[in-house]
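Query form — protein Copper amine oxidase N-terminal domain-containing protein

QUESTION: What is the three-dimensional structure of this chain?
INPUT:
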Amino acid sequence: MKRKYFYSTAVVSFAVLVSAIFGTSSYNANAAPINRSIHVNGTSLLKVNDYDVLYCTPIGPYVNEEKRLMVPLRSVAELLGAKVDYNTKLQEAKIRWRSNEIVFQKGAKTYKLNDTLAQMDTQPEVIQDAFVIPLGVLLRSMNIPFEYRNNKVILKNPSFDQSKIFQKVIEADRGSFILDNPSALDIQNFRLVEEKNSAGETRGSITESGLNRTGSTIREGKEDLHIICLFNQTLDMDADFASIDIPDRKRPKVNPEDSVSQSLSYLKINDDPLQYILTAGRTLKTKNERK
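ANSWER: The structure tokens for Copper amine oxidase N-terminal domain-containing protein are given below.
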């Protein structure tokens, strides 16, 4: 059973390193704009602080034909706490983060960084009216620190937790307050399916796996592969604590280099579209460890 939370919407060489960072994984997705159906078989490509970003509307992180990691601009900007403005007449997007400002234009392989024209080897795409940009250009241009580990781009900065999206997630995610190891499980493959039927109901499910990379056994009762689905108005996740009507789920022992899987299903009757799927691959302190 789930708890539901409601909120208001409001190098070798550097070139070789970047090529490796933004072109080694695959993401296969079909997100039909007519009925908003989503069918994704993918691998986790992006992590921000303690949460892997598996999906952000209208399409999750993916690698394009030029082998560059692409992300929906507005969704990622909201996660990082950046500001985005669109000019529909010019078909351009302006992003501001701290003292930097970058402007992307649809179909252009150039962009402006603080009014200085710069070149990139791929171009922004528009998917379902959303700007989708090369993440590497955004990170390097705005001096956002990142690292590449286990075929995944990892962004870590305390300021990201101050974004409106992460503030809502952290407030609702009670397990984040009893963390033992926030990165015990490396999120691997996932499958996301969402369909809207003729009655106007939206049914979705996500199944994913996490690999124990700690080098030691995760004892029974500590594993927490935690899925969070954020919608336009609501938030769904598994309960991290047992209560009168919600028992604690079984948390198995996980041997080194073994995987554990977890699933979450949801049903939406009203129009409340999926915005993000975030996952924490962690271990929690047991009751005895919290004493």
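ADDITIONAL NOTE: The longest helix spans residues 164-172.
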